[in-house]
Amino acid sequence: MTNLLDVLKNCSSSEIKSHLQGLSDEDRLVLYRDWQLLAREDQLPPQGDWTTWLLIGGRGAGKTRTGAEWVRGMALGLPGFAARPVRRIALVGETLEDVRAVMVEGPSGILSVHGKAERPRFEPSKHQLVWHTGTIAQMFSGNRPNGLRGPQFDAAWCDELCKWRYPDETWDMLQFGLRLGDHPRQIVTTTPRPLPLLKRLMQDKGSVIDRAATSANAENLASDFLRRITAQYGGTRLGRQELEAEILEDREDALWSRAVLDQLHLKEVPELLRIVVAVDPPVTSHEKSDACGIIVAGLDEQGQGTVLADESLEQASPLQWAGAVVRAFHVHRADRIIAEVNQGGEMVETLIRQIDTNVPVRMVRARRGKYLRAEPVAALYEQGRVRHVGHLAQLEDEMCDFGPRGLSNGKSPDRLDALVWALTELMLNREAEPRVRGL
Q1: pLDDT tens sequence for the chain (439 residues)
Q2: Of 242, 266, 291, at which residue does a domain stop?
Q3: What is each CA distance from 227 to 184, 192, 222, in whole angstroms?
Q4: Burial of 144: CB neighbours in 10 Å, binned 0-12, 13-18, 19+
Q5: Which of 49, 67, 81, 251 lies most in the core, judged by the most C-beta atoms within 10 Å?
Q6: Is the residue at 249 inside a domain?
Q7: HSE-CB for 412 with a 13 A CA cutoff
């Protein structure tokens, strides 16, 4: 097998396939785990003196496999990765659930890229993996920066940086802890968004940047996926971001700008007099149906609006989104649910009541177009009267891509619709004047 590996490293893709035809399943598995052979150049660690390796890629471009293989190489002290096994590794994702489901246990995650004899022991209750080399990798969330206070590391893998709710705070806490070993390093694997932190990292002299479009990983994707996804999104703004890994700036005709939103982020939830959960339910629940927009927002005694959370769901059944709405109501201790009924009529309230008969629900019906309804809410942002708790990536993407003709991809702005209903109820309806909670 060792001789074959040496031969294959000098072969073309077609020649490699010819060699593989005569191998047993066991030998093919060995080759699958030989990352130095299979990886593209942009998936192998850069040479030279660097601190941050940025792998900016489209959906399905092989980012997760790259991050998992880098962690494996660092934990085992493999040539090209580390001179010896590192002691501590931080695994940071959007949430702890994402770290486990994608980075650790996913089909391209850390456990999958190890052979049986070298695979680390996963200890879910401790949020960590332990290798036979003594290396320990700990799991952290981009939604909880303070979780990184105290621990220290030789290396870190940061996945989907642009989706973290508190990107700057989490990144800063990680940098203070990246202080073990001869040369602490980190890899960032992310689909791009025009996040100020990402832009700063791209300008940093200690960073090395690799880019990969979705098409670069075509051989490892379902045969129909690339054709279908390119036909649907090729040439659109969303396709350029999610498939071609471009960092897109604002639309010129968009109602919101990132420059404004970036000035309105809060680190903590302020004291609020009133909280509502707004829902823009989908018409159907099949795989091509719209998302269900669910936004939680509140109002303080100065009349300032605060967007607390984006609890929106993709492709949810009616009972799933109704359950999510009621959960958000209770978790955020809201005063009322605001539900648009243009699509579902009385069924919307009936579904919510099936989950909890006691929640107060206000039904609203759109009598003007989405753009006209959104304009006065956008004006509130321009006046500095609305803030966001943390970075609400998907909601803010919709806001900065919403113009007179809607979103550039032609899809329904479901998160934005729910936002508009929430802030209209709190700040623009006369009957929704602030009051002391509980009275």
Answers
A1: 555 555 555 666 556 656 666 666 666 555 556 787 788 999 999 999 999 999 999 999 999 999 999 999 999 999 999 999 999 999 999 999 999 999 999 999 999 999 889 999 999 999 999 999 999 999 999 999 999 999 999 999 999 999 999 999 999 999 999 999 989 999 999 999 989 999 999 999 999 999 999 988 888 888 788 888 888 777 777 788 888 888 877 788 999 998 899 999 999 999 999 999 999 988 665 455 678 999 999 999 999 999 999 999 988 888 999 999 999 999 999 999 999 887 656 788 889 999 999 999 999 988 888 999 999 999 999 999 999 999 999 999 999 999 998 988 888 899 999 999 999 999 998 544 444 444 3
A2: 242
A3: 41, 22, 10
A4: middle
A5: 67
A6: no
A7: 19
| Cα distance between the two ends of the chain | 76
How many distinct structural domains can be found in the chain? 2
Q: For residue 337, what is the DSSP state?
A: E
Q: How far is the CA of 121 from the CAs of 134, 321, 354, in angstroms?
A: 11, 36, 43
**112 and 163 together in one domain:** yes
250 part of a folded domain:
no
Tell me the two tokens of residue 56. 């900016």
Q: Is 3 inside a domain boundary?
A: no
pTM equals 0.80
Cα 135–Cα 71–Cα 218 angle in degrees, nearest 5: 160
* Domain enclosing residue 351, as ranges: 258-432
388 found inside a domain: yes
Q: How wide is the angle at C-alpha 89 spanned by C-alphas 83 and 90, nearest 5°?
A: 150
Distance of CA 183 to the CA centre of its chain: 28
Are 182 and 295 found together in one domain?
no
Query: What token pair was written down for 423?
Result: 């802030």
Q: Are residues 397 and 298 in the same domain?
A: yes
Same domain, 408 and 304: yes
Residues 56 and 154 in one domain: yes
